[in-house]
Amino acid sequence: MFVRVLRDSLFRQRRRKAIALAAVALGTAAAAALGDIALDVGDKMNRELKSFGANLVVLPRGGAGAVGVGGEDVSALRVPSYLPAAEVMRVKDNFWKNNILGFAPVLDVPIVVAGRRALLRGTWFERPAPIEGDAAEGTTAALAGLRVVNPYWSVEGHWPRDDDDGGAAGGAPGSGAGTPGAGAPVEILAGRMIAATLGVKPGASLTIDVGGRQREVTVAGILSAGGEEDGVLLAPLEWAQAASGLEGRLSRVAVSALTTPESAVWERLGTNPRDLPPAEFEKWTCTPFVSSIAYEIERAWPAAEARVIRRVADAEGAILSRSSRLMALIAIMAAFGAALTVTSALTTGILERRVEIGLLKAMGAGNGTVVALFLAEAGAVGLVGGVLGAAGGAVLARVISTSVFGAPIALRPAALPLAIAAALLITLAGSVLPARRVAGFRPAEVLRGR
After folding, report:
1. Full-prediction pTM beyond 0.70?
2. Phi then psi for 162, rounded to 5 degrees?
3. Spatial separation of the C-alpha atoms in residues 314 and 311, rounded to whole Å
4. DSSP secondary structure string, 88-141?
5. What is the per-residue pLDDT across 174-194, written as a single tens digit (0 to 9) for each?
6. Which of 221, 240, 250, 335 is deepest in the core (most CB within 10 A)?
7. DSSP state for residue 81 in the 8-state scheme
8. Are strands 233-236 and 186-191 parallel, antiparallel or unpaired?
9. Which residues contact 430 (CB under 8 A, 6 or more apart)?
10. Which stretches does DSSP call E strand in 162-228?
């Protein structure tokens, strides 16, 4: 009897049920789409935020800290410390190698150009950085260099050729063609500030004094970076090492890593990971916090000290956290609006069917039976709306992700049951007030009013 009454009830008041169904489907689609994006947006936004530059810097252990004497910083008087360039791949070859999106080794060398003191920065611009196991896995070696770490830097002209033999001079390693003074002048980049000071443009030639020796270079392009790089000259790393007599040495390595925002607790505890209890330590090391990635780099490279660039890491974390909160708020508002629409449609339908409800009660149906009938009808609407909303949410999420991030999100098998559960929750939430109205009907009053 209950099933038959429910079946007949489902095909009545089709307009009201269509309104409720549309509200549930739209609310579920919005919530599902934002949920799918929220689960997938972290990595995509983090990759987009890599335009901020490196969020880690690897320095020589014990040789990069500030030195104070009598309250004065005398770090500049210290003998410079260097990292061994032959071990640079340890930055990538560690537990978090898949989260290391890019790195750039750097060697800073003081020079004199046009009678002015300046800084020559030897570095990689862009080159393959294979690690052990890449070839076995059949994968293409990832690229490394400043163009990878800072993808939105602007260059007027062109980037210098970045061969591991010293740059534009060409020649095989060890042949002498890539050494200072052999072949054509090496190509470099000039920061826009120093280029304006020297009055040079792309294609211009410069003579620089490196360690008392004159070197001829060609300006391949003018770099606009928005940072200290605007005031330096950038050259291929191996050429700068040979020109300065610092072969096989590095000042530091800039690292761009894909990370998870650190909470205040983890940031506090993460400063001393060895002091954590074993269970918390394991959780910390298995979560890609910027501090745990720095910790693993130091484990893989004992001679190095990995420091977090808090300005970049905190900015990324703040943006991701705010974006997640915004999407959660919009999803909640969409679900709340859908629930209100369902409440309005069902309440109107109940008022139109109050005589039918009164007859059911007069024939012996209790409040529990009548309310169960009403909720079963609403649940059927919610189920259909959930399926439609899940499909619409998947399409909407892919459209939004493609338009914003240039790549669709991955569909998750758990999205369908979660969307249906959300639809049922929206429907039941919208049915609370109408159900109370149903329970409050008295057969005598309803039938007399008819």
Report:
1. no
2. -115, 75
3. 6
4. GGGGTSSTTGGGEEEEEEEEEEEEEETTEEEEEEEE-SSEE---TTTTTTTPPP
5. 333 344 444 578 999 999 999
6. 240
7. -
8. antiparallel
9. 20, 23, 338, 339, 340, 341, 342, 343, 346, 378
10. 186-191, 205-210, 213-224
